[in-house]
């Protein structure tokens, strides 16, 4: 147990889905997992373990932002033995070719966070997804004929960026697809501890065009992302 997680040592599966929102963790567990059991509720960052297509799978909320995610992932790796991490979240579009409801596979995650500065010094480390997970996720999306994009994303510590989309202009100029708040920390921890990780996000609002989806469309889009991620988990 830790100050953030009171689950027993064997409570988690080797593969863990990571939504930021605790209620999304609850929804995924109750909607898609068989025999789902609540294993952690500290600070209402809910964690569940069940089975999907006969495979043991967990889902653990991380809260918003890289510092919060880093706590849960560090503990899942070092105390609970988790090996594979699939972030399931929403993102804001930074590229006109990414439309609302499209799925984004984060190949690499730039960031404005200073979390890695003390570790890498003068080097600009490039956190990236595990290629095996990326390839499998893309293949599964192709089989489903899903509209998806694979490319660079940015994990920002700031939600309300001054200037809106223009505040990301250097990234827009270099074909970054979307912005979210967790993937760079996830990829860095996975690399440090020799684990596998990928961020699979649904684009729910576009910072370039102002397009966004309503609550009902958001739910159906997240269901498509959730089942893609769970099918990926079932292959591991």
From TrEMBL:
Active site: 205 (proton donor)
Membrane is among the record's keywords: no
One GO CC term on file: cytosol
GO molecular function, one term: purine-nucleoside phosphorylase activity
Binding site for a purine D-ribonucleoside: 4, 180-182, 204-205
UniProt keyword list: Glycosyltransferase, Transferase
Catalytic activity: a purine 2'-deoxy-D-ribonucleoside + phosphate = a purine nucleobase + 2-deoxy-alpha-D-ribose 1-phosphate; a purine D-ribonucleoside + phosphate = a purine nucleobase + alpha-D-ribose 1-phosphate; uridine + phosphate = alpha-D-ribose 1-phosphate + uracil
Site residues (Important for catalytic activity), renumbered to this chain: 218
Positions of phosphate binding: 20, 24, 43, 87-90
Residues covered by the Nucleoside phosphorylase domain: 16-230
This enzyme's EC code(s): 2.4.2.1
Quaternary assembly: Homohexamer; trimer of homodimers.
Family: Belongs to the PNP/UDP phosphorylase family.
Protein name: Purine nucleoside phosphorylase DeoD-type
Protein's organism: Maritalea myrionectae
Gene responsible for this protein: deoD
């Amino acid at each position: 147990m830790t100050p953030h997680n009171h689950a027993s040592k064997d409570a988690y599966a080797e593969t863990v889905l990571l939504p930021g929102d605790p209620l999304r963790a609850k929804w995924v567990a109750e909607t898609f997992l068989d025999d789902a059991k609540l294993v952690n509720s500290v600070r209402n960052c809910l964690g569940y373990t069940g089975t999907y297509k006969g495979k043991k799978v967990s889902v653990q909320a991380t809260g918003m932002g890289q510092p919060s995610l880093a706590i849960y992932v560090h503990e899942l790796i070092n105390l609970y033995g988790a090996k594979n991490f699939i972030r399931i979240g929403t993102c804001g579009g930074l590229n006109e070719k990414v439309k609302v409801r499209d799925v984004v596979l984060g190949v690499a995650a730039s960031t404005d966070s200073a979390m890695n500065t003390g570790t890498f010094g003068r080097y600009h480390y490039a956190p990236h997804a595990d290629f095996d997970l990326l390839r499998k996720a893309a293949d599964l999306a192709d089989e489903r004929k899903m509209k998806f994009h694979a490319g660079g994303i940015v994990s920002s510590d700031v939600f309300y960026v001054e200037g809106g989309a223009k505040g990301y202009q250097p990234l827009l100029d270099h074909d970054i697809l979307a912005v979210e708040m967790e993937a760079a920390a996830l990829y860095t921890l996975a690399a440090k501890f020799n684990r596998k990780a990928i961020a699979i996000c649904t684009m729910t609002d576009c910072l370039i065009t102002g397009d966004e989806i309503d609550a009902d469309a958001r739910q159906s889009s997240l269901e498509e992302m959730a089942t893609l991620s769970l099918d990926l988990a079932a292959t591991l």
